[in-house]
Amino acid sequence: MGTVPFKARDAQSTDRASQVLSVNLPPNPINAYGASKLAGERIGKMFADRYGMSFIAFRIGVCLREHGNRFGPWIPFGRWGQEMWVSDRDLRNAFERAVEDDKIGFGVFNRVSNNEGSRWDLTDLQRDLGYQPLDGTRHSVGPVGKAKTAAAYFRDDFVPALLSRKDLVSINRRSCRR
């Protein structure tokens, strides 16, 4: 049987301010969403144990559609969110490893990129799936990095969004006619 990859973000509590977040810590969901993800992991374990299916769950950090999932100041949750960022490439490569794996009956793995300051433990992912993240970031960028990020946001997101607003376009056309 094939592996069933499963996204289980928020199954781990984020209130453990100084702990390394290992998948071996007792789960402590902080909301109904996290509890449902934990339930999904437990159901996967039942299928793995009872029916011999391979089930791999990923506790995925921050992955955003907006901004092309590029790292930047728009990532929610401040520094904590930036430490949890996962690149598209790292996420895709981990899913590929999980689908191709034929040794793991059941596994739960944290899935973030190799970000400076991240407390998410990737040891099990590296050991069991042989996966090392290819991407990572430093959350403490200097003024030049901040300016580049702001310029890219302005160019790629703010201006196109502003230009797509029909109400502003019609106001500008009326202003030009006077």
Mean pLDDT: 80
Percentage beta strand: 5-15%
Helix count?
6
Cα-based radius of gyration, to the nearest Å: 20 Å
Give a verbal description of the structure.
By secondary structure, the chain is mainly alpha-helical. 45% of the residues lie in helices and 10% in strands. The protein has helices at residues 32-51, 78-83, 88-100, 123-129, 143-164, 166-177; strands at 3-7, 54-60, 106-111. It has a 3-stranded parallel beta sheet with strand order 1-2-3, sandwiched between helices. It has 6 helices and 3 strands.
Which short descriptors sum up this protein?
single chain, 178 residues, mainly alpha, three-stranded parallel beta sheet, 3 strands, 45% helix
Give me the secondary-structure topology.
Layout: E1 3-7, H1 32-51, E2 54-60, H2 78-83, H3 88-100, E3 106-111, H4 123-129, H5 143-164, H6 166-177
Parallel strand pairs: 1-2, 2-3
TL;DR of this structure?
The chain is mostly helical. It has six helices and three strands, in the order βαβααβααα.
